[in-house]
Write a structure and sequence with these properties.
It is built from nine helices and eight strands. By secondary structure, it is of the alpha/beta class.
Length: 254
């Protein structure tokens, strides 16, 4: 099993391919499996998909969960696996981690890909409340009702729900609470790296206007709005997402 140890915590990851590292960072309640549809990128690059502490097969973290804590773990992970000058691809909470990463660790990365995220990640009170009282209900709300676009594949929705139900409810609550406390709106102008922003047009959790705000305030950024996709855009429309990531990387090299 591919594990590495960061701050005494075993971190699980999967990697394939060779070349430019792509560090895939999943969102709340999730795991590396959220990026299963991005594995074809291994034909040209080196995708590395980790489980954040307390998620998937990784051990729980060594301190109270926050975006900052996760960011520090990911930074050490990048250094230890020789992924420096790679490109992080962060979804939702993972997007917050990616933003914090470029702000706290300048020089570590080459570019950024932000998927279904925002500079401030307010969480619906109904989700936070149900995470405390009825975990299955919270997963049904966040994933089943709000996570996907209308007409999404029911099998894909069910698979995503089952994966989230495997997450420890306390970890899940801390994830969403960390998102709710996240706000780097006043620091976006500091981001000097080229940034690709991807969002599903039907995203109900991190709506389109949040991605437009990122585009307007990150100097070297571009925005891809994906039709017939919601918050889980990388699962719902993987071919479009993968092709856009590839073209973004090719443009970096021009």
């Amino acid at each position: 099993m591919p594990y590495t140890t960061i701050r005494g915590t075993r971190i699980y990851y999967q990697e394939q391919g060779e070349g430019l590292p792509l560090i895939f960072i999943h969102g709340s309640m999730s795991s590396h499996l959220a990026w299963s549809h991005q594995r074809p990128l291994s034909e040209d690059y080196r995708p590395v998909m980790l489980d954040l502490p307390g998620h998937g097969r990784s051990d729980p973290p060594d301190a109270e969960i926050s975006v900052k804590l996760y960011t520090d773990y990911v930074a050490e992970f990048i250094k230890k696996l020789d992924l420096i000058k790679g490109i992080p691809v962060g979804h939702s909470l993972g997007g917050a981690i990616t933003l914090q990463l470029v702000l706290d660790y300048p020089g570590l990365l080459t570019a950024l890909v932000l998927v279904g995220t925002g500079a401030k990640l307010g969480v619906l009170p109904a989700i936070l409340e149900s995470l405390k009282t009825n975990y299955e209900e919270s997963v049904e709300l966040a994933v089943g009702k709000l996570g996907f676009a209308a007409g999404a594949d029911p099998v894909l929705i069910e698979q995503s729900k089952q994966e989230c139900l495997r997450c420890n409810p306390e970890i899940a609550y801390s994830d969403f609470a960390s998102c709710n406390n996240f706000d780097v709106r006043d620091r976006l102008a500091e981001i000097y790296l080229k940034t690709l922003i991807i969002v599903g047009e039907e995203d109900k959790l991190t709506p389109l206007k949040w991605s437009k705000y990122l585009r307007e305030n990150i100097p070297k950024s571009s925005l891809l709005e994906v039709e017939k996709a919601g918050h889980m855009v990388m699962m719902e429309q993987p071919d479009i997402v993968n092709q856009r990531i590839q073209s973004f990387i090719r443009m970096l090299r021009c």
